[in-house]
Amino acid sequence: MSTTEHTSRIEVDALERRGSVGRRSQRPAGPAQHLAQERERLAGLQWKRFGVEMQGSTIGAVLNGIDLAQVAGDAEAIAEIRAALLEYKVIFFRDQQLNTEQHVAFAAAFGELEEHPFLQASDDDPRLVRFEKSEAAGGYENIWHSDVSWREIPSMGSILRAIEVPAIGGDTLFCDMYAAWEGLDDDTRGQLASLQATHDALRAFGAGLSEAESEEQRAKFPTQTHPLMRTHPETERQLLYVNRVFTDSIVGIEPDASESLLSFLCSQADVPEYQCRFHWEPGSIAFWDNRAVQHYASSDYWPQRRVMERATVIGTRPR
Fold first, then answer.
1. From CA 180, how far away is CA 182, in angstroms rounded?
2. Catalytic residue flag (residue 295)
3. To which H or E segment does residue 212 belong?
4. Is residue 147 annotated as part of the catalytic site, yes or no?
5. Which one of 36, 58, 192, 229 is most buried, by most CB atoms within 10 A?
6. Which of 17, 226, 291, 295 is catalytic?
7. Which domains does the chain have, with CATH numbers?
8. Which listed residue (147, 176, 200, 248) is catalytic?
9. What distances in angstroms separate CA 132 from CA 168, 279, 282, one per listed residue?
10. Per the residue annotation, which of 127, 145, 161, 199 is the catalytic one?
11. pTM of the predicted model, to two decimals?
C-alpha cells in the first residue's frame, strides 16, 4: 500500500468513527482478555526489599516495608524500585516522612530533574512543582494526560508527595497505555504504527497570554512531533502515546480526520479495566513511569485544601 493510500484509509476510518455506531466506536462488553497474561505475570513477581499490594489488573502497586528517606544512596534498593516501576508502571508508598531535601534526593537517584517553566515551583527548591489547591484555586488536572509530552525530551517519571490532603476525594487515577495499545484491533494498530502526532505546550499553558507572550513562549518551547505508537526505551514494549491535554494533531491527516481519530485514541484512557485509582493520605507518595501511563487528578474535593509537590525526572526522546 502506498503512503497516500495508507493515509487515505486512516482518514476514512477516522471520519467513519465520528457519530458512527460502527464496530470501532462501540467498546465491546465482557472481559478484556488481553489483560490476563500480564495480570498473572505481575502477580507472580517477588521482591527482596519490599512487599507488594497490586492496585489494578495490570497497573499500580503499593510497595510496603521500605523507608524512602534512607534509600537515596542505596544502589541496590534504587535498582529494585526502578525495576518495580517498570513492571507496575506506577508505584505507591505510604507513611513516608520525607522533607523537601529528601524528596529531591530520592528523585535525583533516578536521573536529572527538570524545572517546569509554567507551573509554580516550591519555595524550597525550583526542581519541585507545588500544587496548592483550595477554595481560591481549584484543581484543573482532571483530564487524562502524560506530563510534559510537549517537550523535545519528555519526562521519564514523576514523583508526587502528599503534604495536605482532603478527608474525602482528591484521588489520582492512572491508566496503562500498554494495555490501551494492545486493546486496539490488529488492523488499527497496523494503520497507526508509523504515524506521528504533534504536542503543544500552549494548548494548556497559553491561556491568558498576549500574542507577543505566546510568540515568546513558542520560540522557547516549539511544538514537538512524537510517534503515536511509542516504544518504551527500557521495556521495548509498544504503547499508545497521545493525550487530551497536549496532543494537537496527527501529522499528514486532514484536520477533521485528525480530530476524530485523536478523540477515539484518547478515549482509550477512559477504559476502567486499564486503570487503577490511588487514595491519598498524608505522607503518601506516587512514582509513575510517565512513558507508560497517563494520569487524572480527580477534582471532587473543592473547596477543601490539597497540597502536593512533584519532582520530575528527565527522560529520553520518544521513538
1. 6
2. yes
3. helix 211-220
4. yes
5. 58
6. 295
7. 3-16+34-314 (3.60.130.10)
8. 147
9. 16, 17, 14
10. 145
11. 0.92
